[in-house]
Amino acid sequence: MSFFKRLFGGGKKKSKIQKRNPFNLQVGDVVSYDLEDYIVIGKLVYNDSSYEWYAYQLDSGSKRIWLASEDDDEIILGIYESTDLRLTNVPNEIEYKGQIFYLEEHGKATITTADGRVGAKTGQVMEYWDFESDNGDFLSVEKWGNEIEVSYGYPIDEHELEFLPGSQE
């Protein structure tokens, strides 16, 4: 390489920014949803018997939500918010916001990726219960050690989201 190419970087290739989607967001990316911009401040990838799904913690400065994504023969997306619902055990039905949520799935998952501010570690195992109401809303119950967390969610379509990369990856 010549002196001028080394000096002015002519020999270096620029890295191409990867187009973002609900399965490759990175901490620092921006997600626009419902007329609000959120920064991805955390990313979790769950694995249950080789089936993976993703959860991204999003912060707008005034509000924090979770974007969940999975590909189970179709792309399934949901927005989740923490609730003040406290459980000591997990029943088969839960009443919340005037709706009855029915148990759809229960299992254990290993965290294979934990980036940013998520409160979990790679390799950590958690137990989960997925509930759904008759109108399609969700309750996600997760047991981390002895602590049970409940989040309320609802389905969204990918066209409701816009992704802007915040990094070069």
Oligomeric state as shown: single chain
Largest sheet: 8 strands, antiparallel, barrel
Strand order of the largest sheet: 2-3-4-5-10-9-8-7
List low-confidence stretches.
Answer: none
Instruction: Work out the helicity level.
Output: under 10%
Number of helices: 1
| Average pLDDT number | 91
Q: What share of the residues does DSSP label as strand, in percent?
A: over 45%
Helix and strand string, N-terminal first?
HEEEEEEEEEEE
| Number of strand elements | 11
The class by helix and strand makeup works out as: mainly beta
Roughly how many Å apart are the termini?
27 Å
Number of domains: 1
Organism: Anoxybacter fermentans
Protein name: DUF4178 domain-containing protein
Pfam family, one: DUF4178
Write a structural description.
The chain has 169 residues and is mostly beta strands. It has one domain. 4% of the residues lie in helices and 56% in strands. It has one helix and eleven strands, in the order H-E-E-E-E-E-E-E-E-E-E-E. Strands 2-3-4-5-10-9-8-7 form an eight-stranded antiparallel beta barrel. The chain is globular and about 50 Å long. The two termini are 27 Å apart. The relative contact order is 0.22.
